[in-house]
Write a structure and sequence with these properties.
The protein is an alpha+beta fold and 221 residues long. 16% of the residues lie in helices and 36% in strands. The protein has three helices and 13 strands. β1 and β2 form a beta hairpin. It is globular and about 60 Å long. The relative contact order is 0.17.
């Protein structure tokens, strides 16, 4: 479990292809300072398990499903990544509950600089659009953020978008400050929204099954 408060900007030092997976080595002296074999570290929003480490680096295996679901398949040596260690019991929850289990990716549509802040708009897939609400929480590349705007309901599902507003600290301390239109980012929606959607779908399916199996006139009795 994570909070979405980035502790360190790490650097990918090696991407070793191993069949349909990769061994990803990242330099992050802070996050490995107390890491042990098997610990979880969020790498740009993806929860990975430490399998090897040195005083300044750690290595984790990234499976095919993760490569398919995330932007990690395009990582190369020299790329910067956002790093966060798993939260400790009793810590303050500075961001929101982040699992490190991303829902997919989003693409930067535009950026607009204000006085000391930046507005960034991202495209939303039809599948993820219902899970993102104005003023709701979202993790982008592992960064806990508040949604500042969403596309109106009149917009076609394949043209949906959402926006966040980034303060100077976020721009400087995370990879989001370097994002430009066309870049892909990892997205994790609020876990509560995912549970609500699942319950609604199950309820709708149960209702449809009940209606289909009810005898004619049963609703009148």
């Amino acid at each position: 479990m994570f909070t979405g408060i980035i502790e360190e900007l790490g650097t990918v030092t090696a991407v070793d292809e191993r069949g349909d997976s990769v061994a990803l080595t990242v330099r992050g002296p802070l996050v490995v300072s107390d890491a042990q074999h098997g610990d979880s570290i969020s790498v740009s929003g993806v929860c990975l398990t430490v399998v090897e480490q040195s005083p300044e680096t750690f290595t984790a295996f990234v499976m095919k499903q993760t490569l398919d679901m995330s932007a990690h398949g395009s990582l190369r040596a020299g790329d910067r990544v956002n790093l966060e260690r798993a939260a400790s019991v009793g810590d303050r929850l500075g961001g929101h509950i982040v699992q490190g289990h991303i829902d997919g990716t989003a693409t930067v549509l535009l950026t607009d600089d204000g006085d000391g802040w930046r507005r960034v708009r991202f495209a939303l897939t039809p599948e993820l659009s219902p899970l993102v609400v104005d003023k709701g929480s979202i993790a982008i590349d592992g960064v806990s953020l508040t949604v500042s705007a969403v596309s109106p309901e009149s917009v076609a599902p394949d043209a949906a978008w959402f926006e966040v507003s980034l303060i100077p600290e976020t721009l400087a301390a995370t990879t989001l400050g370097a994002r430009v239109p066309g870049d892909r980012v990892n997205i994790e929606t609020d876990v509560l929204a995912r549970h609500v959607r699942r319950m609604l779908r199950l309820d709708a399916a149960a209702g449809a099954a009940g209606a289909a199996g009810a005898p004619v006139g049963a609703e009148a009795r």
